[in-house]
């Protein structure tokens, strides 16, 4: 299990620059320091540091030790690419609810965001036209089913890569690094996922990674509803959707929100009075483009697209899209996550 | 009849001479006097006259009182408890409708359609107005008062959330959708249950009033039978003593008592039947139709919210859309309620709108399935048109159902009022009539006895 640790220095070598290298080093230090807190007696430096979303990793089969590692990039034709070419359109399953990621502007009716830009880049590469896309808005629960039933070719929808999902779908290389973070009003005395949460009311989405994190270590925060899980649950502190937390925060019903920082960036963009607290997220997870299990030519092609998408330093397509959609709420990112490839 | 039968007038004159005037005091003195009077025939006759007059008067008074109580209960049914129950139903419906309109307007985009917005405003205004009216006619300590207070507290909270939803939606922020869902959560989880409890309490009061009005006037009937029996006995005694078949006075008194008794029995039976008709055919239909209308409004709100939430809220097991599931539940109860409304409808004018609603519901479900399929294919705009578009949309079917239910409700309300009013009308003249007849009967009885008494002078 040393791959996780090796990853950061390797990324630094790929030309992120000295500053990035320092930042990554800090991140690793912070993650290692936080680990005993978040994972109790878990092995320090174990697999969960670098692959935060997969605490179940150790019980998985040996085949899945590094879920982010994907097929090597290739622009070779295959049955799945041919199918898309014949159709002349890429069918992409996207979100229309996540501000700055995949969101339908009520004014124009158009979908836009960081995920949407990536879909258009894939369409441009495969079909030569960024607009040759049929967007299908799919709810969270339907992401895997939509791929399995060929309703969509790809799912680009803030979807975290993990071992469990790898049994059902194929993932591209990681295109975004996210993690759980605390969101609170700017003037709040909460400083992050730490002792400053003591006695505060913290909102999380039901069944989310954030809720699990609070269960492990709440720092004395109040985060459970009185009648959670029963018919009398009033959905005050644990809510159906992460955006509901911002509603509670604005209404003064909670003091802070713990959520994925990528989604929190969308919340911060909707409310200039709130901000992400703490320097770094306290977990790490990666988003990937999902395709049908076995659509290897398509996955390799998407990895090929992502190579080009990432390249170009500060002027890469990735960075341009980041600056357009995410920099406001999620400042400080200087480069995309480095890709990892399977050896075989 | 413990009075010893006595055919012969024993002795004339000397009726109950006051033996010891100094001690004439209190009950004891009265009893002594009575005992003394009973020893002579004129004395007995006087007592009989007084008893007859009292019995007939008592019968009249009890009838007037008891029927007045029944009539005022019947009046309460028509003019107080049924309107209050209907008002509570309107509060309930206005709130559910406001929630549906808020979701419809939200879906239409940053600029809400004017008519939808106005309908929302009307619903909120009507709910506030009716809440004030309901509060005015409700005792402070009743359960209804508690629900009215809850509704008064929550209504501004709800409208505040809707306004925040609008403001955010207008700026193109998805936070608007989250606010709208929170508003809906308040409405469906707190306001509507309170309104439902208020409706149930008011309808319970209506049932109590109707039961009061329909209760048999046992005391009056018993008093009437006793009065008639004593009159018959007195006439038999008169016949035995004099061989005269009729005493005109006693006969008139008997006739008056008989008329009151018949009026009482027949009148109350008719009123009972009318009220029963109003409750069974009117109120029960109204109740199930009101519930059906609320179900259809809730289902419509959930259908809209499915598109507002866009898959953001799932059922507890994470496999289904929460709002789509709630829509299904609502439509199922709507179907059941329409089926029982169809059974309760007792004439063509009542059953036709229910049949319209049933066909509207099946069209709605069919269109809903298509809209869902469109949305699941990823064509959100297409699905939106199929749900809130002006033609061939589920919205159109919903309006058809809502209009039909309103028509059915209006019809049943008229039926109820007509039956209940005629029930109330039947009892209308009875208290006064009974009083007048009883006085006449008492006078006649005394006149009859006096005539006989004069034969001793």
Comma- or semicolon-separated keywords:
heterodimer, A: 344 residues, alpha/beta, D-Maltodextrin-Binding Protein, domain 2, 3 domains, 5-stranded mixed sheet, 12 helices, 13 strands, 17% strand, disordered N terminus, B: 457 residues, mainly alpha, 83% helix
Gist?
With 344 residues, chain A is of the alpha/beta class. In chain A, 35% of the residues lie in helices and 17% in strands. In chain A, β2 (97-98) and β3 form a beta hairpin.
Task: Characterize the structure shown.
The complex is a heterodimer of chains A (344) and B (457). Chain A is globular and about 60 Å long. With 344 residues, chain A is α/β, with parallel strands linked by helices. In chain A, 35% of the residues lie in helices and 17% in strands. Mean pLDDT of chain A is 81; it is low at 1-21 and 30-61. Chain A starts with a helix and ends in a 19-residue tail after the last helix. In chain A, helix 1 runs antiparallel to helix 2 and helix 5 packs across helix 11. A five-stranded mixed beta sheet of chain A has the order 5-1-6-13-7. Chain A has a five-stranded mixed beta sheet with strand order 10-9-11-8-12, with helices on both faces. A three-stranded antiparallel beta sheet of chain A has the order 2-3-4. Chain A folds into three domains: 3-50, no CATH class; 79-179 and 284-325, 3-Layer(aba) Sandwich (D-Maltodextrin-Binding Protein, domain 2), CATH 3.40.190; 180-277, Periplasmic binding protein-like II (D-Maltodextrin-Binding Protein, domain 2, 3-Layer(aba) Sandwich). Chain B is mainly alpha-helical and 457 residues long. Chain B has one domain (39-454). Chain B has helices spanning 26-38, 41-107, 114-136, 143-170, 175-214, 218-242, 248-309, 322-344, 348-376, 380-388, 394-428, 430-454. In chain B, helix 2 (41-107) packs antiparallel against helix 11 (394-428) and helix 6 (218-242) runs antiparallel to helix 7 (248-309). The longest helix of chain B has 67 residues, at 41-107. The chains are: A alpha/beta (344), B mainly alpha (457). The interface between A and B is large, with 37 and 35 residues.
């Amino acid at each position: 299990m040393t791959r996780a640790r090796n990853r950061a220095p390797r990324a630094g070598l790929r030309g992120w620059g000295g500053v990035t290298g320092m930042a990554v080093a800090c991140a690793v230090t912070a993650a290692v320091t936080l680990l005993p807190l978040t994972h109790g007696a878990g092995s320090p430096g174990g697999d969960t540091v670098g692959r935060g979303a997969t605490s179940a990793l150790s019980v998985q089969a040996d085949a899945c030790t590094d879920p982010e590692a994907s097929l090597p990039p290739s622009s070779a034709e295959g049955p799945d690419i041919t199918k898309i070419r014949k159709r002349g359109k890429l069918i992409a399953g996207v979100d229309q609810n996540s501000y700055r990621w995949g969101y339908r502007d009520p004014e124009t009716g158009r979908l836009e965001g960081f995920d949407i830009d990536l879909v258009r880049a894939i369409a441009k590469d495969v079909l030569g036209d960024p607009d040759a896309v049929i967007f299908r808005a799919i709810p969270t629960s339907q992401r895997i089913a939509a791929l399995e039933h060929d309703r969509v070719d790809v799912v680009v929808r803030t979807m975290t890569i993990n071992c469990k999902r790898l049994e059902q779908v194929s993932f591209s290389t990681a295109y975004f690094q996210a993690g759980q973070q605390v969101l609170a009003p700017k003037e709040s005395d909460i400083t992050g996922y730490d002792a400053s949460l003591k006695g505060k009311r913290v909102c999380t989405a039901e069944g989310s990674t954030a809720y699990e994190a609070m269960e492990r270590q709440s720092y004395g925060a109040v985060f459970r509803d009185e009648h959670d899980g029963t018919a009398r649950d009033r959905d005050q502190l644990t809510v159906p959707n992460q955006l509901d937390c911002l509603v509670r925060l604005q209404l003064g019903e909670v003091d802070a929100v713990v959520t994925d920082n990528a989604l929190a960036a969308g919340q911060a963009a909707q409310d200039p009075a709130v901000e992400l607290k703490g320097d770094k997220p306290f977990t790490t997870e990666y988003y990937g483009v999902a395709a049908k299990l076995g659509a290897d030519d398509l996955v390799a092609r998407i990895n090929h697209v992502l190579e080009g998408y990432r390249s170009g330093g500060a002027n890469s397509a990735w960075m341009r899209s980041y600056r357009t959609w995410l920099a406001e709420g999620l400042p400080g990112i200087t480069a995309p996550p480095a890709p990892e490839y399977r050896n075989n | 009849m413990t009075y010893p039968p006595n055919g012969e007038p024993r002795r004339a004159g000397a009726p109950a001479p006051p033996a010891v005037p100094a001690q004439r005091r209190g009950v004891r003195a009265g009893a002594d006097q009575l005992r003394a009077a009973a020893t002579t025939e004129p004395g007995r006759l006087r007592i009989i006259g007084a008893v007859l007059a009292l019995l007939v008067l008592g019968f009249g008074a009890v009838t007037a009182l008891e029927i007045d109580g029944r009539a005022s209960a019947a009046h309460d049914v028509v003019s107080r408890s049924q309107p209050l129950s209907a008002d509570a139903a309107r509060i309930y419906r206005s709130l559910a409708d406001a929630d549906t309109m808020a979701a419809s307007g939200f879906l239409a985009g940053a600029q809400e359609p004017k008519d939808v917005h106005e309908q929302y405003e009307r619903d909120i205004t009507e709910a506030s107005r009716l809440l004030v009216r309901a509060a005015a006619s409700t005792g402070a300590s009743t359960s209804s008062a508690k629900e009215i207070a809850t509704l008064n507290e929550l209504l501004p909270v709800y409208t505040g959330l809707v306004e925040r939803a609008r403001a955010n939606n207008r700026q193109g922020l998805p936070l608007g959708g989250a606010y709208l869902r929170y508003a809906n959560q308040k409405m469906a989880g707190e306001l509507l249950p309170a309104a439902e409890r208020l409706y149930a309490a008011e309808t319970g009061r209506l049932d109590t009033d109707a039961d009061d009005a329909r209760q048999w006037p046992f005391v009056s009937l018993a008093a009437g039978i006793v009065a008639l029996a004593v009159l018959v006995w007195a006439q038999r005694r008169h016949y035995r003593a004099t061989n005269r078949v009729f005493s005109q006075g006693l006969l008139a008194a008997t006739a008056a008592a008989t008329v009151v008794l018949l009026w009482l029995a027949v009148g109350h039976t008719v009123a009972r039947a009318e009220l029963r008709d109003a409750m069974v055919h009117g109120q029960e239909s109204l109740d199930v139709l009101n519930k059906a209308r609320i179900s259809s409004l809730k289902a419509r709100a959930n259908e809209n919210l499915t598109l507002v939430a866009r898959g953001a809220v799932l059922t507890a097991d994470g496999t289904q859309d929460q709002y789509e599931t709630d829509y299904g539940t609502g439509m199922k109860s709507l179907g059941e309620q329409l089926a029982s409304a169809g059974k309760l409808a007792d004439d063509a004018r009542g059953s036709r709108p229910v049949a319209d609603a049933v066909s509207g519901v099946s069209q709605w479900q069919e269109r809903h399935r298509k809209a869902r399929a469109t949305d699941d294919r990823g064509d959100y705009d297409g699905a939106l048109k199929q749900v809130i578009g002006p033609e061939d949309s589920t919205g159109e079917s919903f309006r058809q159902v809502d209009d039909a239910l309103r028509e059915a409700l209006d019809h049943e309300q008229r039926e109820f009022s007509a039956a209940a009013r005629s029930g109330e009308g039947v009892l209308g003249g009875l208290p006064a009539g009974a009083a007048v007849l009883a006085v006449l009967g008492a006078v006649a009885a005394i006149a009859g006895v006096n005539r006989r008494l004069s034969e001793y002078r």
